[in-house]
Amino acid sequence: MAKIYIPYGTVEGQTGRIAEYIAEVVRAHGHQADTADLKHSGDALPDGYDAVIVGGSVHVGKHEAYVRDFVLRNRAELERLPSALVSVSLAARGDGENAESYVEKFEAATGWHPAHVGLFSGALLYTHYNFLKRQLMKKITKDKGSPDLDTSRDYVYTEWDGVKRFTEDFLAGLAAPQA
């Protein structure tokens, strides 16, 4: 049984929901999983973990600064342990090239190049936004050609089956002999 740490950064909460779902999948496969919101838990990687899956959401083209700081502080451990990055963005829904560029920028900023990277769509949470952000997100959504313009409801784009497959692939890599 592996003990897996899943620290994450989230703004509206979708990355947190994805991290919790990853933890559920990990536990369903007989491993231990602990999630931590880096905004509240700090940037230290606790001792005793066998693997780490770092999650971060993208806003205005960047991952949260405190997720970057966590990776910078713990880069040596992330390189030593099996580790993965989960990047959550609206771009992952239909603009894979842009979603990949966010990861490339994050890797350049941190020097960490995880062997496993998951790109997942987030959510358009109109009902959680203030008036200005709701109007801005509606304009961006319209400019992208999306029909999801009803600001009285939220749109969750996360493909949970893809999150499950990513997590199971990561777990399978833990069981495989290291070359």
Q: What tags apply to this protein structure?
A:
single chain, 179 residues, alpha/beta, Rossmann fold, two-stranded antiparallel sheet, 8 strands, globular
Protein described:
The protein is an alpha/beta fold and 179 residues long. It has 2 domains: 3-122 and 158-175, Rossmann fold (3-Layer(aba) Sandwich); 124-156, no CATH class. 44% of the residues lie in helices and 23% in strands. The chain is built from 6 helices and 8 strands. The protein has helices at 14-28, 38-41, 65-80, 96-110, 131-143, 160-175; strands spanning 3-9, 32-37, 51-59, 62-63, 83-89, 116-121, 123-124, 155-156. Strands 1, 2, 3, 4, 5 and 6 form a 6-stranded mixed beta sheet that branches. A two-stranded antiparallel sheet has the order 7-8. Helix 1 packs across helix 6. The longest helix is centred in the middle third of the chain and has 16 residues, at 65-80. The relative contact order is 0.17. The mean pLDDT is 92.
Strands, helices and their partners?
Layout: E1 3-9, H1 14-28, E2 32-37, H2 38-41, E3 51-59, E4 62-63, H3 65-80, E5 83-89, H4 96-110, E6 116-121, E7 123-124, H5 131-143, E8 155-156, H6 160-175
Parallel strand pairs: 1-2, 1-3, 3-5, 5-6
Antiparallel strand pairs: 3-4, 7-8
Helix pairs in contact: 1-6
